[in-house]
Amino acid sequence: MSWDERQRAMLAEMGLRLPATAARPAGVEEATAEPAEALPVARTVAAPPARAAATDPAPAAPAREVRPGAFAALAADELPSAVAACRACGLCEQRRQAVFGEGAVGSAQWLVVTDPPDDADDASGQALGGEAGRLLDRMLLAAGQSRRGETPTAFVTPIVKCRPPRGRAPQPAELDACEAILARQVELLQPRLVLALGLQAARRLTGLAEPLGKLRGRVHRWRDLPVVVTYHPAYLLRSPADKAGAWDDLCLALKTVKTLET
């Protein structure tokens, strides 16, 4: 079966143009999501200036401090605020906002775990925004997934929820602290597959200190879930020639999920 025009348009957005007779890789279903152009792009809206109160306002209640062991008992509606109040490692000292994640609620087909938040994510509190986020949305749509819309099927979250200073890699203690959050997200979302975007997410989830190129192209395991590794969208914006390799990784993810269904 050949790609339809909508699917070709999605792949073209990733920088991949297929010949007219290109065949669909084995195990890949047609995407049913709306075209990428229909995706709403989240925008950060500045809050209006606060009016002076007639009397001194009551002091705000201090944020409840949450330690890693507490995450395991939290419900889905409690977890985001607990992450915002988390002080399990030193990254909390310099964050502006913790980045919980975005996507499917209740259950997800794919859990997409990215490298740590960048400065823009830290400012907005949103996972993977800007051009890199728009490319990720197009990649997901080409694979029949989405993190937005009426019925999202994927959830996107960073490997650590707070931005490490100066863009450094997260330290082992920081990764350990955030794994308690990620583990609870897995329990609540019950995904069928984990897609790791970028070297830091890939190394943590695979437990291997190999280059990204060696981690790609095979299925790993983390918490009894299949893990497929691919490039981070920000890298693909700098190195568009590797988009074809990213598409191969998405096809591997689709094939892996298809195998689980049989």
TrEMBL record:
Q: Which Pfam families match?
A: UDG
Keyword Transmembrane helix present in the record's keywords: the answer is no
Q: Which CDD domains match?
A: UDG-F4_TTUDGA_SPO1dp_like
Annotated ranges, domain Uracil-DNA glycosylase-like: 100-251
Q: Which InterPro entries match?
A: UDG_Type-4/5, Ura-DNA_glyco_family4, Uracil-DNA_glycosylase-like, Uracil-DNA_glycosylase-like_sf
Lineage top rank: taxon = Bacteria
Q: Which reactions are catalysed by this chain?
A: Hydrolyzes single-stranded DNA or mismatched double-stranded DNA and polynucleotides, releasing free uracil
According to the UniProt record, what class of enzyme is this?
hydrolase
SMART domains linked to this entry: UDG, UreE_C
Keyword Amino-acid biosynthesis found: no
What Enzyme Commission number(s) appear in the record? 3.2.2.27
Keywords from the named record: 4Fe-4S, DNA damage, DNA repair, Hydrolase, Iron, Iron-sulfur, Metal-binding
Q: Which family does the similarity line name?
A: Belongs to the uracil-DNA glycosylase (UDG) superfamily. Type 4 (UDGa) family.
Protein name, entry field: Type-4 uracil-DNA glycosylase
